[in-house]
Design brief:
alpha+beta, binds methionine sulfoxide, elongated, 302 residues, 6-stranded mixed β-sheet
Length: 302
């Protein structure tokens, strides 16, 4: 069985490439949706007068991925508060939207909207409308990033690797409840797929963080509450992105090779029970994209 949903997420080159990485998606096609003419050419849509939005038709197997999961992934690659602009691309053709064929799908999608809106605390500007029309784009726009691996993309390239990692981790951890086994598996998966220098967990034990499953060189065994990047992320109960560890007051140098770092809290009913710590030998390796996906990854199965 196959179902179809339409995502407008800014420049369709990146949106198409992203959904092509998604397990359960059979095909993704660049096109123009919900405009006022027939069979538009790219040059016409580009004038921003046709009403069309650059849109990706996503054909998926609902037995492998739900519409809710797909919508959830879509929200990982858009700025839902930005009207008619995604990345550097501006114009109504780059507006965000989800266009559906069946009314029942709207209800499913609205669940994700409600969650996102509650999380962000502001109204989303992502359209949610029935599909009025869709015309596939010209061949040169199809699979653009496969044909041009260094081509323009408004999305960060690491999002394409993170989505695969996220889905695989979800599958592997589906039935595992032991927290050490979960941490060990996640540390290995993240480390291997993303090629980081050090990837591991510190677990909360009383007033300290104690070294847990990790991949990479030998590391400090214990970190106090509020100490270093890890202890601060625990204390402040939030993700910390550190572009230059030398600039972080109290940073604990387990290795002199480490130049930048990200620490993501792992929570159980809101309370921090561990932190995921990742180090890089380059400056400024981590940003909001890493934070977004790593936060999702540590939440898997919770
Ligand atoms: N740099 C960390 C300590 C842990 S190691 O990076 C593995 C910190 O300042 O908390």
């Amino acid at each position: 069985m196959e179902k179809t949903i339409y995502f407008a997420g800014g420049c369709f080159w990146g949106t198409q490439h992203f959904f092509k990485q998604v397990e359960g998606v059979k095909d993704a096609i660049c096109g123009y949706a919900n405009g006022n003419t027939q069979n538009p050419k790219y040059e016409e849509v580009y004038t921003d007068t046709t009403g069309f939005a650059e849109t990706v038709e996503v054909r998926y197997n609902p037995a492998r991925i739900s519409l809710e999961e797909l919508t959830d992934l879509f929200f990982c690659i858009i700025d839902p508060l930005s009207l008619n602009r995604q990345g550097h691309d501006e114009g109504t053709r780059y507006r965000t939207g989800i266009y559906y064929k069946e009314e029942a799908e709207r209800t499913e999608i609205q669940k994700v909207y409600a969650r996102e809106e509650a999380k962000i605390g502001a109204p989303l500007v992502v359209e949610l409308e029935p599909l009025r029309n869709f015309f596939p784009a010209e061949e040169r726009h199809q699979d653009y990033l496969d044909k041009n691996p260094d081509g323009y993309c408004h999305l960060p390239f690491k999002a394409f690797r993170y989505v695969k990692l996220y889905q695989d981790a979800k599958l592997i951890l589906a039935d595992e409840t032991d927290s050490v086994a979960r941490m060990a598996e996640l540390a290995a998966l993240i480390h291997e797929r993303m090629g980081f220098f050090w990837t591991g967990f510190y677990r909360v034990q009383g007033q300290q963080l104690v070294l847990g499953p990790f991949q990479g060189p030998s590391a400090c065994l214990r970190i106090g509450y509020g100490k270093g990047v890890c202890g601060t992320a625990w204390k402040e109960n939030r993700t910390l992105v550190v572009p230059d560890v030398e600039e972080f007051p109290g940073h604990i140098a387990c290795s002199s090779l480490s130049k930048s770092e990200i620490v993501v809290p792992v929570r159980e009913n809101g309370a921090v029970t561990a932190v995921l710590d990742i180090d890089s030998t380059e400056f400024a390796t981590f940003d909001a994209t890493d934070a977004l996906w790593l936060e999702k990854i540590v939440e898997i199965g919770k």
